[in-house]
Amino acid sequence: MKIKKQERIVFEIFIITILAVVVVAALWYAAVSEINNHKENTINAFLKQQYSENSNLADKVKIVMEGYMKDYKLDLKSTEKNIIKNVIKKETNSNNKYIFFYDTNHVVFEKSDSNTKKYSDKTLTEVFNLWEYNGGNNLDDLKKLINTKQDGTAEIMKDSKNGSEILSWCFFKVSNKTYILGMSTSESYLLNDISFDKHVVRFYTFILIFTMMFAATFIAFVLYIFFSHKKVSELKKELQNRRIQIEEAASKLKEMEQSLKRASVYDAVTKVYNRQFLHILLSKINSELFFPIAIIVINIEGIQKINKTFGHNKGDEALIKTAELLKEYCGQNNIISRINDDEFALVLVSINERDAYKILDELQDKIENSCIEILCKFTFGIAIKNDENDDIFDVLSTAKKSVREQKRGWSEYF
């Protein structure tokens, strides 16, 4: 009986020991998680503060750049040099905390002149690839946000030797050029600055004492498990709600992106290509495959008078009817674009000079026989690119010049 009792005690001690080990292991796991959560919350709070400072600095840089261009008539390149010298370099720029200043394709300034020089001949895509080659990680979200031109924050590693960095950035435009102004802070520098390691030591000391007390009772272990599961359930519910919010936000962003794409291609009034997209198309078709290329410019004299007399709706109506007439006559194989308030351009590819002038004559007859001619005066100019050495944009300028020369001879005003 005594042997059986001893065996039972040993068994009970063994069971209690196992339970104590499980409890201690679980408790220390929770302690490590709490430290990590505290670290994450600290970084997130700092990110919000840094992003706010970043946004204010971006607003300041934008205002100063616009002032340079307006007051001192500087070009963008000179403006960038002055803003780096007089504003950005006066901010904190060290190995632990620095400012970076990019455009959408290249590094304009980062940390110092010597550091910037490393990236001078690289695009942003090549810079990101260099960071990955040097052991960087967590770059996917950063690249996605930068490529879609979204303000944001991220915790990344550019180089495995330098550790993690906490980044924030803002986009802004100056003279139709998009810039990125950001701030970077070393994670180790931040944690050292707030004495995070000392807090961790004190926390672990407390957990060690608490572990010794906690291992003495099985009930405390049960309560700990109960509350831990409750917390996990709440976190899962919160994550589910956040996932739904993210999906809704992603859907809205997709709709906005599609709207922006449409706005960047077509003229809002006439629904033909706008000037910016025409320039893109001209650079794409500037190939021997499409030669000869003829460009006809159509100027409408009298739109401003219609706007003043009858209102902008009537002026828009005349523009829309002109665009519809061009689309109806010229078909789908040619390019029609509104290049100014009162000018359209018609681009004809793979057409000889004789046929181009024939189309010009027929187009003049078509417009003169339309009701639009009653309200407005039309002037036409044409230029043809036959040789690959001819600049396609010079051809467009020649067609415009032809229009201006015809208009000089007019004595009638509308």
Give the helix proportion (percent range). Answer: 55-70%
- Uncertain stretches: none
- Biggest β-sheet description: 6 strands, antiparallel
Taken from the alpha-carbon principal axes, the silhouette is elongated
Mean pLDDT: 83
Q: What are the secondary-structure elements, in order, as H or E?
A: HHEEHHEHEEEHHHEHEHHEEHHEH
Radius of gyration: 34 Å
Number of helices: 14
Strand content: 15-25%
Termini separation: 123 Å
Tell me the strand order in the biggest sheet.
Answer: 2-1-6-5-4-3
Question: Would you kindly provide a written description of the structure presented here, covering whatever features stand out?
Answer:
This protein is of the alpha+beta class. Helix content is 61%, strand content 18%. The chain has 14 helices and eleven strands. A six-stranded antiparallel sheet has the order 2-1-6-5-4-3, with helices on both faces. A five-stranded mixed sheet has the order 7-9-10-8-11, with helices on both faces. The model has no long low-confidence stretch (mean pLDDT 83).
Question: Layout of SSEs?
Answer:
Layout: H1 2-71, H2 76-86, E1 97-103, E2 107-110, H3 113-118, H4 124-133, E3 135-137, H5 140-147, E4 152-159, E5 165-174, E6 177-186, H6 187-193, H7 196-214, H8 218-263, E7 273-274, H9 275-285, E8 293-301, H10 303-310, H11 312-330, E9 335-340, E10 343-349, H12 353-368, H13 372-375, E11 377-385, H14 392-408
Parallel strand pairs: 7-9
Antiparallel strand pairs: 1-2, 1-6, 3-4, 4-5, 5-6, 8-10, 8-11, 9-10
